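Why do we bother with a discrete structure alphabet at all? Because it lets us treat a fold like text: something you can write down, compare, and reason about line by line. To make this less abstract, here is a complete entry for Coproporphyrinogen-III oxidase. Read it the way you would read a sentence in a foreign language you are learning: slowly, and without expecting to understand everything at once.
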Amino acid sequence: MLETNNSRNMRIPLALIDKYNVPVPRYTSYPPANFFGDDFTTNDYLEAVKASNSKQPENISIYLHIPFCTQLCLYCGCNTHITKDQDIMKNYVAALKKEIHTIGKLIDKNRKISQIHWGGGTPNVLPAEYIGEIMEIFTSNYQFIEHPEIAVECNPAHLDQAYIDALVSFGFNRISLGVQDFQAKVLDAVHREVPEIPIEELVGMIRRHPGVSVNLDFIYGLPHQTVESFATTMDKAVAINPDRLVTFSYAHVPWVKKAQQKLEKLGLPEAEDKVKMFEVAWAKMTGAGYVPIGLDHYAKPEDDMAVALKNRSLHRNFQGYCTRETTGQVYAFGVTGISQLEDVYAQNARTVKEYIDTIERGEIKVVKGFALSDTDKIIRQIINEIMCNQYLSWKQVAGQFNLEVDALKKLLNFKESKLDEFVKDDLLSYTTDEIVISDLGRFVLRNIAAVFDIRLEGAIQKFSKSV
């Protein structure tokens, strides 16, 4: 079993920051989305959906993308559509229902839903009844595992008791609050709405419903944030006592998201300060008894996610970390949604107009995708083990793919010398049988995973830096 070191302090040497702060993929998928190609067709996806019924994992994971936001947060790297137009939202929801029914005809109803995740954008800018209507489609037409995870990302500025009560009545059992920071001046600088209802009061409203878990999400590396102010933010977060907490490192990709250029004028924290914020979060959260998970998550020891880490059975997809029990092939609905099936990835239409127009014509449109080779699937599993469980058993992975360990290493052209620098820097240890990543190594998980990424060498794609 993996033992978690709940040390209150982690110190990352400046030399390591300079050494490892290089552009690498975030590995929410392997291969990453910027390797997807437009030669992958809609028909390829529809055939893959049919084929997925006989693939593992058997469970179904649903992702619903609600792109709407009432204003643009300058840090945002998500696919959004800025509007307050209720007619557009109504038409979008109608299209979403049609897509769910169309794809649903291809999915074996003997399979069970293990996870539904609503992301965005801001799902809770929709009138609550729209969310209820869509949830009704799934509850009426599909079977569920005994304890599915039904989660929604919410902007606290658009949340109140009535909306929370409605979400719970629709079956939601996890609500994530995109807090980002408690300081109004930080939120104002990045053009994020400041909630009228304090976060601690919103959490109290959610807690009135037993069995509903609370996530708090934060971003570090934003204008006006300092190490001291972020420490105060973490203290306040600990006092609120969420079930899980996430501290995302701000990913600066202004060549992709032009609005981020405005943040450069305000001034962004240096990499060294971002690292100190990471250290502060680690110290505050582990000191409060939370278990650190992967790059940026923390969970209470009794949380399913922490238990899965202890058992080395944690998984990851575009929705984030998940347990083996809730892992399923991901069927994504809505604009830019990315389906993650066993054999393929496929991304929906890019704009709200294109998406609605296509669905209203009775069609489905995939704009790009990727068909995984057998080698891709092996690398995907290896990177999953590193990013999620901070551990790799060569024997276990080889066994999953009916290979001998030596044959697996030869297939990947893997040489243990590729890990020597990480060992020298106390980031991991290894034998011929396994790789064990240290607590310090969590800081460079993306860099370690990149060692196994045979597509990365010579790639022309741009990625955010690891710090």
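What the structure line is telling us, in plain words: Confidence is low (pLDDT under 50) at residues 1-7. The chain has two domains: 28-333, 373-467.
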